[in-house]
């Protein structure tokens, strides 16, 4: 098999990608910003792409030299990290699978609350690992790109580089949100099973031996065991545990369901040998082991306990059982209170024991003793409070690359060893290349290495009439890898040499590197630049575009371009309804654009095309859940209603009238524009890549 050499001198096989005839050359770079990024260098057949008329774009042709975007980030954690499942139990992250029900979070009012969600994707990678230690002893092993929820928002494990646009990252004293490290489950051995059966049968079962005289028959001894429960999980566990001790039972319907009652299922066993064996199994030990105590608390909780979200309670009237419950709770380090209620008449007083410590201790109880009934373990709707000692004590690079895992969920997050961890959203368009829709979009970048040469060939065609070409309409031509490949510069040089009008849209100040070419293009063919700056609101930017350059750095680039004589405008996009469209937020962008000398400013309300919508809505549910109903109403299709868009445009026009620096709508933004191609002109074959607004950069 033919191999290629990467930039580390290592042999790499070619990769076959759909849409491209020849295999791709696989390359990696040693520099930190590209440490986990793989580049697939391909020979493109064409580079000029016709924009579909249905796209309603103000240009006919576009060029995109990259597929995928290294602005995006990854979020992954160690495979042994326990994940909180929807049944209240935990499972190692490496064993979680798509379709599993787990806990995530949603925001309601002042609080973020636990919510059940589904896993939609699961994958692994090998990356440098970091160990995070919290003040309560919780330890987490993750990649540097992982994000955790703190009392001050989402933060990465590590920063990337100093200066403007540096992402928020954890430091010592950062406070994570959640309950802290999960307790280890009990060992499912004979001691635990004896304890469980003791708690369950003493709590809710019936074991008796009595003399009975049927009519017309002699007196005889009757030995019977009965247990009736509405929750079959505890019933089936009891039956299984009894069978492991050689005690066999029969399951039956004790009471059928009715309008006001659930069905009550029962277990029954008869005979002196079975009953004697049951009595032996459920006898109170003189010195109960720790595992027996865990089983006993699980059994008595399944039989007599309750969890309302406000507290765990276990109620009983038997003083011996109550003393044993208290002893087991103390032995396992739980604090509790109790209250005895006199019920009057001949009924015994009932004592209710209440566990203290809030959700952190409730989860520790569930995980330590492992009761069987899942409905009693639900924490759905419970608020995530900040009164748990979860400050970061240390962040240590382990110095080794280890297998790490990540998942995609409906809520955009999950609970990893008691803290709220961010997950990665998938990018469905990358599946056209047979790449994974999540991680691969960010770490497998397709590079059309022959783009400048192919463009020159296409510009030479007699059928090409010099139509305006827009760059940066799908993927940013100035993403980080452009600093290495310099393909965008090569494309601009070809457009300059053929005097072809063009424009660039980007979110990166890296475009200043090609300022000399912009000057030449503006003086001969016609050129304009546009920087996408949807907001100057620091919080909104960090939430919605965490991997992009700081908007103030982009605004400074506008000023530098204008001072060099380059028509440069601002695409105020995307404006997010209810998030970045307040009068103060719009006014800040317009004022800064005027100060920078922007030639034009065009607001664009968020457009959610298929593929982006599936990425945006989970992000919205995580970042601004209170707005989800409004967005579902506004975005029944790809666009917000016309009235919403016109109202936004009107407010921006009103702000622009305060300044005299902006061009009027009829003012041209290029020095010269060649005539449109004749109707008979044939279009070159195009790479099947849609022309749309810039990716939102969410993640």
Please provide a written account of the structure.
The protein has 699 residues and is α+β, with helices and mostly antiparallel strands. The chain is 26% helix and 26% strand. The protein has 17 helices and 32 strands. The longest helix is centred in the first third of the chain and has 15 residues.
Percentage of residues in DSSP E strands: 25-35%
Quantity of strands, as a count: 32
Bulk shape: elongated
Helix content: 25-40%
Overall mean pLDDT score? 83
Main sheet characteristics? 7 strands, mixed
Low-confidence blocks of residues: 1-14, 16-20, 71-75, 425-442, 664-699
Strand arrangement, largest sheet?
5-6-28-29-30-31-32
Distance between the termini: 38 Å
Treating each run of at least 4 consecutive H or I residues as one helix, how many helices?
Answer: 17
Oligomer status: single chain
User: Radius of gyration, Cα only, in angstroms?
Assistant: 33 Å
Secondary-structure class? alpha+beta
